[in-house]
Amino acid sequence: MESVELKVEMVGIHEKRLRKCLSKLRGIEKVEVDANCQKVVVTGYAHRNKILKAVRRGGMKADFWSAQNELLSAYASASTYGSLRFSNFNFF
Q: Is residue 4 within a helix (H) or strand (E), and if so which, with residue range?
């Protein structure tokens, strides 16, 4: 079994549409949606490109999750809950 992590631009109503698109694919065992980070984790035997294609066919912007997305979601969550503090880092 393989897990595929996707970044999907969505609002609350898109989760139902996302799950419907993915339910049509064979080999999908589990779909986890984190709407705050716009992250979707799909577990199963389906090929990762087919999963991405199915989500895009459903009318949503999607791409594979990357380390850059991890940083952006951490920054977004820190900015909503307080300030993001960098200690011992010089940027210039």
A: strand 2-8
Cα 5 to Cα 82, 83, 92, distances in angstroms: 27, 27, 34
Domain boundaries, the chain: 2-82
Cα(55)–Cα(41) distance, integer angstroms: 12
Confidence tier at 36 by pLDDT (50, 70, 90): confident
CATH number given to 2-82: 3.30.70.100
Instruction: With beta carbons less than 8 A apart as the criterion, state whether 55 and 6 touch.
Output: yes
Q: DSSP labels for 24-84?
A: TSTTEEEEEEETTTTEEEEEESS-HHHHHHHHHHTT--EEE--HHHHHHHHHHHHHHHS--
pTM score = 0.72
Query: Residue 84 has what pLDDT?
Result: 46
How far apart CA 39 and CA 64 sit, in angstroms, is 9
